[in-house]
């Protein structure tokens, strides 16, 4: 047994220190980024905030709206040729869509069918809860061999060593985060995890050294956390809970005492397992929960609110563009993130 004594931090443990700046208005802040990916050599431009591949979030309705902002949506693993064919806008939004797969044979076959029908998709997201297995790295290698020109996202991991390993196995972008998610119970169920801010700082450093990119996945509770993710060095920030509960996610709206709610659940929750895989095997336990969140209307309003917040963060720290945010970032460690007298 060993104990690492270094203190690791979460988004809530820090704030961005304000700095003198010459910026006149937040309207002048440029949030667009252009990336060229390590192996695929594809170039992508847009606002690097992503919708997570979760039910109610990684949906085509969300992708249509996010694409208007040049933001990427990671579709859920349940999207197949039939579902994609039904969408009339697919040819105009595909640049901002990532197809998700697990490491099962059926996932691989589904991906193959989709790419035969729609060869234009660029992003493949290979997504497992625990990215630390040898089987996972060999799966990434096989996808890289089969699709040399596709941009491969792989995760999740939280440490520099494994970030490097996934990149050396063929990932262009590594997805970082174990346990920080809004409907994740991994930390409770297994005791495993890593504070998200530190994970992002350490994995970004490892990935950038190899010319690759990272996604800070999970744990953002407000626009300020998104800005902190970028400040910590994330190339992309992925959101689940913050983008849930909207019309475009096509979740079922339920009414209670005159108020509207939408059910939202983790991808490894009992509900998700029942819905997609006919239930959990006996040797596994659920690592996600189900919550009822207040119905939040159009996703556009939430996006505008997030982008407004991130622009404002940039002006406070003197960053004329999102690209400069991490260079302009000094985090201060805090004992209290905000005043909660009246809630948030
Ligand atoms: P959020 O933005 O809601 O805080 O986090 C979203 C992320 O949580 C997802 O992208 C995914 O990585 C993670 N996640 C989603 N569902 C589950 C789950 O059931 N269990 C765990 N451990 N993580 C989940």
In short:
The chain is of the alpha/beta class and 344 residues long. It contains twelve helices and 15 strands.
Please describe what this structure looks like.
This protein is of the alpha/beta class and 344 residues long. It has helices at residues 60-68, 81-85, 90-93, 105-117, 134-146, 160-168, 186-190, 196-209, 223-231, 270-277, 299-317, 322-325, and strands at 14-16, 33-36, 43-46, 49-51, 72-74, 97-101, 123-127, 151-157, 173-176, 213-217, 236-239, 253-256, 259-265, 290-294, 331-333. The protein has an eight-stranded parallel beta barrel, surrounded by six helices. Strands 12-13-14 form a three-stranded antiparallel β-sheet. A two-stranded antiparallel sheet has the order 1-15. Helix 6 (160-168) packs across helix 8 and helix 9 (223-231) packs across helix 11. The longest helix has 19 residues, at 299-317. The chain starts with 13 loop residues before the first strand and ends in an 11-residue tail after the last strand. The model has no long low-confidence stretch (mean pLDDT 96). Guanosine-5'-monophosphate (5GP) binds at residues 52, 54, 129, 156, 177, 181-184, 186, 217-220, 238-242, 266-269, 287-288.
